[in-house]
Specification:
The protein has 335 residues and is mainly alpha-helical. It folds into two domains: 106 residues, Cytochrome c-like domain (Cytochrome Bc1 Complex, Chain D, domain 2), CATH 1.10.760.10; 134 residues, Orthogonal Bundle (Cytochrome Bc1 Complex, Chain D, domain 2), CATH 1.10.760. The protein is built from twelve helices and four strands, in the order αααααββαααββαααα. The strands form two sheets. Strands 1-2 form a two-stranded antiparallel sheet. A hairpin with a 4-residue loop joins strand 1 and strand 2. Helix 8 crosses helix 10 and helix 9 crosses helix 10. The longest helix has 44 residues. The protein is elongated and about 105 Å long. It binds heme C (2 copies). One heme C (HEC) binds next to helix 8, helix 9 and helix 10. One heme C binds next to helix 6.
């Protein structure tokens, strides 16, 4: 009798503990289910994002051997161009020391970071500036000569072939002829006034100067081989024939990407006005010059914001440089 009493108590305690644990488990699995349901509902309300996603070498085990080697070298040439072609480059000393990546973020893979998602799918293409059908080599060399204020590299060089192979690999999942969402630079809403370099100067001082310097000179990295912060004007910057010298490209790039790693397409840090104005300030500063007398042989194809005459219309050079642009675009449409 005494024995039974002695045994009964721990058994009862055991049952109670087990009961509580089972209850807890059931309760937490119910909570988990509710949580999952709420999460699924939340996901369903999120905007579907169809933006381009760059391939990754980590998950790609199809690209192998020589091709894989060239993809990797091509990527490094884009990310650290200056180490190969800059003032102390290992291949030649023929550029201003900028990297392609300074303007094509994350080696040309970042969404809305002026990426290369559309390159392999849309080249060769007829381009207005040269009025000829241009292939990928030609387009790459345009940026070497203008954005990097340097010299073209030979199409059959291992470097050019590697850049080509890298761009082909980046675009391998993009349908021919298609320009994926988030590739290149999106159009920024026009202002109904001219962009104002004076207002832009204040934006520059407040938002950009800490990184890009008080003279737009940028900052060279500790090893001296490339820029930690690239220059925005002056003799080491892009020349006046470069894509960024057109205000719509610069304002769009800045609106979607600057300040670096703080602004994004969905969450810009500048207002649209500030982006146009700071662009106007940057492009009103001195920079290297390029003979562009052979550009735009067909004037009717000239971009609305090409900052040099002659033009097919009667708007001033100043309006083509700073806007307002809508009247220029409208006049072109009605022709
Ligand atoms: C100073 C900024 C800058 C630098 C540096 C630069 N680019 Fe560009 N690049 C641009 C801009 C701006 C465009 C035009 C984007 C547009 O109009 O959509 C462009 C366009 C291109 C395109 C065509 C993209 C397309 O979808 O049509 C290719 C290819 C390209 N660049 C390659 C390079 C390579 C390779 C380098 C380095 C050798 C380089 N770029 C360096 C600014 C730059
Ligand atoms: C936190 C530092 C930082 C700030 C602030 C910043 N940038 Fe940048 N910017 C960078 C870096 C870094 C790059 C190059 C990115 C790379 O190489 O991956 C860059 C690249 C650029 C480029 C293209 C390359 C070139 O030199 O032409 C432009 C144009 C630019 N920034 C403009 C601006 C403007 C305008 C502002 C102010 C609205 C600004 N940035 C604010 C760090 C910054």
């Amino acid at each position: 009798m005494n024995d039974m009493k002695r045994n009964w108590l721990p058994i009862l305690l055991g049952v109670i503990v087990a009961w509580v644990i089972v209850g807890e488990v059931i309760d937490s699995s119910r909570k988990q289910k509710e949580e999952d349901k709420r999460f699924a509902e939340y996901l369903a309300t999120e905007e579907h994002d169809s933006a381009w996603l760059a391939p990754s070498l980590y998950s790609d085990n199809e690209t192998s051997g020589k091709e894989r080697e060239m993809v990797m070298y091509g990527q490094d040439l884009i990310a650290h161009t200056s180490k190969y072609f800059g003032p102390n480059g290992t291949v030649s000393h023929t550029t201003n020391g900028m990297n392609c990546q300074n303007c094509h973020l994350d080696a040309g893979t970042r969404r809305w970071g002026n990426n290369y998602g559309a390159v392999y799918s849309t080249y060769p293409q007829l381009r207005g500036r040269s009025n000829i059908v241009q292939d990928i080599y030609g387009r790459v060399n345009d940026c070497f000569e203008r954005s990097l204020n340097g010299k073209a590299i030979a199409n059959n060089s291992y470097e050019m072939q590697s850049i080509y192979t890298y761009m082909k690999w980046l675009g391998k999942d993009v349908q021919k002829g298609k320009k994926p969402y988030s590739s290149g630079l999106p159009k920024l809403t026009f202002l109904d006034r001219a962009a104002d370099p004076e207002k832009g100067k204040m934006v520059y001082i407040n938002v950009c100067q800490t990184c890009h310097g008080d003279k737009g000179q940028g900052m060279v990295s500790l090893d001296g081989k490339e820029y930690s912060y690239p220059p925005l004007w002056g003799k080491h910057s892009y020349n006046d024939g470069a894509g960024l010298y057109r205000l719509s490209s610069l304002a769009s790039f800045v609106s979607n990407n600057m300040p670096y790693n703080q602004a994004s397409h969905k969450h810009p840090k500048l207002t649209t006005e500030e982006a146009w104005d700071v662009g106007a300030f940057v492009n009103s500063q001195p920079r290297p010059q390029l003979d562009q007398s052979k550009d735009w042989p067909d004037l009717s194809k000239k971009s609305f914001d090409a900052p040099y005459g002659p033009y097919a219309d009667s708007f001033s050079e100043k309006q083509h440089k700073y806007g307002p642009f809508q009247p220029i675009v409208n006049a072109k449409k009605t022709k």
